[in-house]
Amino acid sequence: MSNQNQLVSKVDWITVSLYALFVLAGWMNIYSAVYNPETHLWIFDAKFYDSNAGKQLIWIATSLILIICIFAIDFRFFEAFAPIIYAGFIGLLILVPFLGVTINGSHSWFKFGSITIQPAEFAKTATALLLAKYINEPQVNLSKWKNQWFSAAIIGLPMLLIIASNETGSALVFASFLILLYREGLPGEYPGLFIGFVTIFVSALLLSPWTILATLIVIAGCIIALSPIYIQRLKQTYVKAALFIVGIMFMVFLVDLAVNKVLKEHQRNRIKVLIDPSFDPRGLGYQVTQSKIAIGSGGFWGKGYLQGTQTKFDFVPEQSTDFIFCTIGEEHGFFGVMVVIILFVVFLWRLMYLADQQRSRFARAYGYGVVGILFFHFLVNIGMTIGLMPIMGIPLPFFSYGGSSLWSFTILLFIFLKLDSHRSDMLSR
Amino acid sequence: MFEGRRQILLLFFIIIGLVFLGKLFFLQVIDDSYEKAADNNAIRKIIQIPFRGEVYDRHNKLIVYNTPVYDLYITPRKAHVRDTLQFCQLFGITRAYFDSTCKQAKAYSRVKPFLFLKHLSKEDFARVQDAMVDFPGFTFTTTAFRTYQSKAFSNALGYVAEINSNSLQNQKDDYYRQGDYVGVSGIESFYEEDLRGQRGVKYRMVNSNGVEKGDFKEGRLDIQPIAGKNLFTGVDIRLQEYADSLMQHKVGSVVAIEPSSGEILTMVSAPSYDPSLLAGRNFSKYYRDLALDPMKPLLNRPPSAYYRPGSTFKLIQALVGLQLGIITPGSVFTHAGAPVKCHAHNTSHNDLHNAIQWSCNPYFYHAFRKILYENTQGNTYERSAQGLQRWSELVANFGFGRKLGVDLGNEKKGILPNVEYYNKVYKGENTWKFSNIYSLSIGEGELVVNPLKMANVAAIIANRGWYIPPHLVKAIGDNKIVDPFYKTPVSVGIDAKHFGVVIEGMKDAVLHGTVGSDGRIPDIVMCGKTGTSQNAKGEDHSVFIAFAPKENPKIAIAVFVENAGFGGFAAAPIASLIIEKYLKGKVDRKAVEEKFMNKSYLPNVLSVTGPKPQKPKKDTLK
Q1: Nearest-5° Cα angle at A70, A69 to A73
Q2: The whole model's pTM is what?
Q3: From A367, which residue of chain B is nearest by alpha-carbon distance?
Q4: A–B CB contacts, 8 A cutoff, strictly below
Q5: N or C: which end of chain A has fewer CB within 10 A?
Q6: pLDDT 10s digits, B51-81
């Protein structure tokens, strides 16, 4: 009894409440997305469980069981077994091309009876655990090349396997471990370079090379003009500036080349749609256009719960899963999405705050891994529904319909909450 | 170590959150185009067009009504035709048409209805209705065609057609959509807003495949259609048909008015057209033919054509002279000294009565000269200006140079030359005098009227000094709403006592004056005045205005027959036949009737535009 009371008092109830709020709000929006006023079912109807809303209710219930299981397991298990868990999922990722089934054009699912599982969803958790365990090693210092390479290998292996099964979107999620590494001491240049590269990549797509060149010359000129006189007099300064500009222009050229030669047709189109949604308005552009219409028609206060016309009548494909944010935008308006975005940022802040409270570097690093993964989904999912990001099939954590997705985020989050509840039991290093 | 990095990350997250909120604020609150796009997506507006109002004649006889026609729609996914041959035979279509239309429908959508066959008649519909159970996926919608009881009233009635792109763009209240029907001319156009009724709107929700999913907002926004209002005209359709039959093989107009009410009894424009040609699926074909016809059958001449009034204007000249006190019934003028010629008639005692009876040109030349010159001004130029001013003010009261306000859109003002007009023509004040403008004295020169105006002049004389604005429609809707404008008498400013001598002159003009024996009705006293409207392009136009009976007049009429020469020849007999028909219900003078029905005055050289205002005349009376 006392043990349990201790547990109750040590669990971070703010995070748990936000989790519950997100899952409940998500379910209500899934219910709305499939709601049909003419053939309206309620939860006591057996047929209800054939609908997405019904199934999601089952996923939520089973998630509760998962949470209980996680809390029943000894907290040391996760650190100790991290390599085995990781190896297990790598194994599954290798097996998926041979034993998996194809769902929605993606050959990355395992089927057990009527339940389908996508190992890629869970591989993120496994990777976060192993990466945290590795960083927890006393001799690891992320400013060293060797440790950087090893970390990159832990992240890169599942990433490559997922790319191999054609799930580029899920693979890109692994880039979010940059946040974990950054917090654990990776030099700031790396995320800086990453952001810089993304900026160049996006500019290369959106702007003409001449515009980029002109902008760079203006920026370089400004920097030089603002520098001390002796730097302005050095010949070296101008050589450096020229090299810098040439270097970036070369990257722009590479991006162009990559987009046109390396990327596959559908990937290229997804990026083109981002730049110009009217391109292919019935195909790829359709999704973005319809998504924006659904959200845009919500106005400030929204159309009201179950009143969304775009949502209910299948105008936005993947309404319950990847595009659940549209339902919120249409029915609850700007006010609704504002609440969701603010709460999500608060949620991320709370997790970072908790992570920094940890005595064990393992728990802290894992916590930042969770923050990174959740943030990446938040960024890409909402970004794509409002046309700021290319369409990648990744869900909005806790909101989107789907067993694998809800389970994997629940496990990801509650392992951290479990670790957090034992933070006083851990050794600090 | 690195605790500060949490703040950097938090800042980064907040920036991303703000970027999203900024973009969302733009999408949701600032840019409202998405709301329209969403409605276009999910809400289907179903327009229910009510029946257009019907049109009745003065005896409540139906003139225009609607005949339902049926359009057949196919919904490919539901459609199932087991026996294609039977289906084709049923509808009288070819196998090729069936196949190609089915293909088009499928290409359009598998779930949305597609127009398969247009305008099936009521009879066809009744015939196929029972067989349709064998052909699921086919549905009918009802529309209506205008149907006409009579072919004789087309021009004044106007027609209904699909709205053209010009009117569609320039409409005031955004009511019409592409493909809507709208009254184009005549009373169909003038009373469009009454006739069309109130369109019904139903909002249905549809899903992304276009399948209906129920009423939008439980139908709270729906509007029930309201049928168009019926129009009750003052037209006597039997008289209209009779007048129309007399005008065959002729170009011209007939307008008959009931003087006491201003109701138009008949309005004929010749040549005319069969209105059913423009009310059906072959509209565009027939419309082209009619619009290109050099005889201009689509032109409604009574309010729109230009003519000179000719000698019929002498009646107004006489009334104005009497009112101004410049002439009296006893005033006598001889033929001497006038540049205008006259017919041979008894001039031993050429007073006003005699002058009207024989349409004496010199008499009215002298009278008009007196009207212009008998005033206080100095020289002849100044006197002419003041005289013409007084004269034109009184003539304007008869409706000259302005619109009478008939309920037709194409009424023309005509021309009444006044001081201002001549100052402009002769470029300056006091540059012209009576000798420049004396043609006005006998209704020629710059004076331009239309037949409607002249019928109204006949009504004014019949009423001895007043008229009610002539109008076709006397009441609107089942509540019989009447525009007060068409109830209010308008005085022309001529004292009733002056009409006696004019009316007597008109009576004798018919009995033993300018009107020949064909224009006399044995047992009815008709008062009339002939006119010959000068036509620079060909034979003169024959004009006649009249009213009857002399006591308590029931009908006032103007008849214009183009290129028929002197007014007594064609116009007067035709007017007399119409009056006889109206007052007696039948015509006893069968020989006259037959003669004028068959008589053709079709010109070799066509002229329907009427005279152009003349060039200024040189002063020929020096």
Answers
A1: 85
A2: 0.61
A3: B6
A4: 120
A5: N
A6: 899 999 999 999 999 888 888 888 887 788 8
